[in-house]
């Protein structure tokens, strides 16, 4: 049986973005943190990183932010960019300010371009991130595409063939599944993540995507009641669902 890891209080809180270790010392001196209702007095106190710690350890009587291993589901809004450094609207600025200072840093699990909306996953767990995006996992991703022109009717066969060659690509796309919704709307399911792949696939079929929305990743679908720009933390069952 593996031993529960521990971390000094000041290191834990600094990693979660509550401040520098010096700032944490000041907060502890002001009796800002309580464990099981008791005020914490020592920044070097070792904390057992158990699943219930976030409920037991409180900051101004509010539960502690989630421990490392955080996975967030966001309904990415139009115009937001999956970058830490670019100018303009960034998806990370939609998160609480303190979360933007966490270590390890929160990163997007793959990217959606600024003109694509829908399900975006973010995490500070690098191992989990790489599992989701690994080509070996074949995690399916579903997109609803709105098109500039009517579908020809042969796109489903073309995309499923595994022979579609995109411009500047050396290997053809893996087979993808197309569900026709209407003359100018379709749902495409991919198991790979090439640059602007959905847009480029429809372009190769003589069409243009005017709107693109990601519906699901693996077995996890974007809830209809999650508004654009809103997010929530995933539970263990939902994280597992991403892997199918």
Structural overview:
Helix content is 20%, strand content 27%. It has helices spanning 9-15, 21-29, 53-56, 126-133, 155-160, 197-204, 236-242; strands at 6-8, 33-35, 38-39, 46-48, 57-59, 62-63, 71-76, 107-108, 116-123, 141-147, 177-182, 185-190, 209-217, 220-221, 231-233. A hairpin with a 7-residue loop joins strand 8 (107-108) and strand 9 (116-123). The model has no long low-confidence stretch (mean pLDDT 96).
Characterize this entry briefly:
The protein is of the alpha+beta class and 244 residues long. The protein is 20% helix and 27% strand.
Order of helices and strands: EHHEEEHEEEEEHEHEEHEEEH
| Overall strand count | 15
* Helical segment count: 7
CATH class annotation of the largest domain? Alpha Beta
Shape: elongated
What can be said about the biggest beta sheet? 9 strands, mixed
Mean pLDDT over all positions: 96
Number of domains: 3
Low-pLDDT sequence parts: none
Distance between the termini: 27 Å
CATH architecture verdict of the largest domain:
2-Layer Sandwich
> Gyration radius, to the nearest Å?
22 Å
Strand proportion, as a percent range, falls in 25-35%
Give a quick set of tags describing it.
single chain; 244 residues; alpha+beta; Structural Genomics Hypothetical 15.5 Kd Protein In mrcA-pckA Intergenic Region, Chain A; Alpha-Beta Plaits; 3 domains; nine-stranded mixed sheet; four-stranded antiparallel sheet; 7 helices
């Amino acid at each position: 049986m593996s031993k529960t890891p521990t971390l000094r209080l000041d290191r834990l809180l600094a990693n979660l973005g509550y401040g520098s270790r010096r700032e944490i010392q000041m907060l502890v001196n002001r009796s800002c943190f309580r464990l099981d209702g008791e005020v914490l007095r020592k920044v070097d106190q070792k904390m057992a990183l158990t699943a219930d710690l976030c409920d037991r350890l409180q900051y101004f009587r509010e539960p502690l932010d989630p421990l490392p291993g955080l996975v967030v589901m966001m309904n990415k809004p139009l115009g937001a960019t999956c970058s830490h450094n670019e100018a303009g609207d960034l998806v990370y600025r939609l998160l609480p300010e303190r979360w933007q200072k966490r270590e390890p840093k929160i990163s997007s699990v793959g990217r959606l371009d600024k003109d694509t909306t829908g399900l975006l996953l973010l995490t500070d767990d690098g191992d989990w991130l790489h599992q989701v995006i690994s080509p070996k996992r074949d995690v399916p991703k579903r997109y609803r595409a709105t098109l500039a022109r009517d579908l020809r009717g042969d796109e489903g066969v073309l995309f499923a063939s595994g022979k579609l060659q995109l411009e500047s690509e050396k290997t053809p796309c893996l087979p993808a599944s197309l569900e026709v919704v209407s003359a100018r709307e379709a749902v495409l399911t991919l198991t790979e993540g090439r640059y602007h792949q959905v847009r480029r696939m429809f372009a190769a079929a003589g069409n243009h995507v005017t709107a693109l929305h990601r519906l699901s990743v693996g077995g996890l679908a974007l809830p209809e009641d999650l508004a654009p720009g809103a997010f929530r933390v995933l539970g263990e069952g939902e994280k597992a669902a991403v892997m199918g």
